[in-house]
Fold this sequence. Notes:
- The protein is of the alpha/beta class.
- It folds into two domains: 216 residues, Rossmann fold, CATH 3.40.50.150; 66 residues, N-terminal domain of TfIIb (Single Sheet), CATH 2.20.25.
- It is 30% helix and 30% strand.
- The chain contains eight helices and eleven strands.
- The strands form two sheets. Strands 3-2-1-4-5-11-10 form a seven-stranded mixed β-sheet, sandwiched between helices. The chain has a four-stranded antiparallel β-sheet with strand order 6-7-8-9.
- The longest helix has 14 residues.
- The chain is globular, with a radius of gyration of 19 Å.
- The N and C termini lie far apart (39 Å).
Amino acid sequence: PLLGVRNVSTSGLFSCKNEVSVSSRVFVQNVMSFYDSMSEFYDPWASGDPAYAPSGTFYRSLGLAANGTLVEVGVGTGRIAIELAALGRSVIGIDASEPMLAACRRNAVAAGVLDRLTLCHMDACRLGLCGVDLLTIPFRTIGHFVTPDARRTIFTQVHAALASGGRFAFDHYVFDRAWAEAHDAVPRLMHESISGTGASLVVWDTYRYDFPAGRMDCLITVERTAPNGTVIDRQHNAFPFAWLDAAEVRTLAADVGFKVEAVYGDFNGGAFSDTSPDQVWILRKAGRA
Length: 289
């Protein structure tokens, strides 16, 4: 299979039909373009986010407690799915980027758990799944759905994918207007490391906010330098991103047919408020408890 990615065709999981608007497909175009070019640097870049470690712990615990079919949308390089597989769980991992899935496969082979992973190159806005017991979209990936139409599409697709009583878990940060205004267009160091040879890798984030639209343009700059300080390579990768209002989540959940099972203000189960650092949601499809 292409890049070692396997596709699922058993157990009736991919038997649901779906219709998706053209605007919702912007998601996969944005994600593919960015993550295809960032697959080599994704892990050092992402690990600079304060939610990186606690989000992994949260979704690992959620996956271990779940029964039945487990799907992760935005599986990336596999940091959560591979940990779950190492603990005995089988996981279906979906991603729009083939290079990210290839990196996930290499990591799974190195960990000796590839037999517990099914990796699928798919557009999240065209899931067409059925009978899933737990579907997760971890680590703020929901922010890549940058329009209300795209967010409604993914909620609808997830609801159709879940079995009766199935759960949908995702997270985002709670938008802080004051922080955003202070950091608008200001480069933010996300990663810096020096190899044994003295060469260095530096990754910067720069955000430009469109406050009325509820979104921002993110520029990720990756720079590699030689031991003498000479810049060997510099690349810029950009993508749009949207923050998420809790009121919109509740409206979408109700409209699509979800019940809000829980919403936390952090990955440790803290109470949610407008000043929480995070919003961590667990929605349940009507049916069995």
